[in-house]
Amino acid sequence: MKKSLLAALCAVLLLSGCASEFNRVLKTDNYDYKYEYAKECFARGKYNRCVLVLQDIVTVMKGSEYGQECLYMLAMSCYCGKDYETAAQYFKKYYQSYPKGTYAEMASFYVGQSLYMSTPEPRLDQTPTMSAISAFQDYLDMFPEAQLKDVAHDRLYELQDKLVEKELHSARLYYDLGSYFGNCTNGGSNYEACIITAQNAIKDFPFSAKREQFAVLVMKSKFELAERSVEERRLDRFRDAEDECYGFLNEYPDSEYKKTAERYIEHCKKFTKEEN
Predict the structure, then answer these.
(1) Rounded CA gap, 16 and 22, in Å?
(2) Mind listing the pLDDT tens digit for each residue in 51-71?
(3) What is the dihedral of CA 195, 198, 204, 206, to 10 degrees?
(4) Cβ atoms of 129 and 162 closer than 8 Å
(5) Which of 173, 168, 210 is nearest to 191 (CA)?
(6) Each residue's pLDDT tens digit, 78-107
């Protein structure tokens, strides 16, 4: 019991001492001392303290021999502390301030990496994902033989997959809403919105592994649109749906939706043959 109390007391005194030292560092005007203290904090993984100290001296250090390292260490401290948005800003600031600096290549990479770490799930707005893609592309353009180019390429594929997933979710949502008109304030229909979304995704991501899923949604939507069309538009839409089904079978002859496409074709022919 006494040993436990003694250990607890020592821990409290140690923390109190560390806090006092940290407060003294923040108050001192000795920037070299602050810089060395920040480096020690970084080495020990005390990133929040490192950030607070470096933010206080980074502007002063800009013109000194420690300017580059100070700014880069600040950016990396934010990154290691999982403040990815702030890290991206500091890495970008480093690259803009020192485009030929010691850490320029790594700073450029970590702009993209920081943004990559803060991208949202596919269902949410993907503006941050687009920013991360742009940052990695800038990195590869500026450093085509960079040591982390393979990692950057992998990140780009992952981020593009996230955009594809976002478009697939949107297309499926339109299809599932079907004939519901509550959100069709500008005319048209959910099936038409599904077709446009899926076709744009196929055009924008022609080599995506989810290409067939978009093609299925286009085929299904065109058929449902024909089924629900007014009389004067029905024939043209059934012809369009029939052509879409044939095109789908040509591109995906072994698809699990083969029978669905064949069933649609037979149904479409009931209308198209009557007019021939």
Answers:
(1) 10
(2) 999 999 999 998 888 999 999
(3) -110
(4) yes
(5) 173
(6) 999 999 999 999 999 999 999 999 999 999
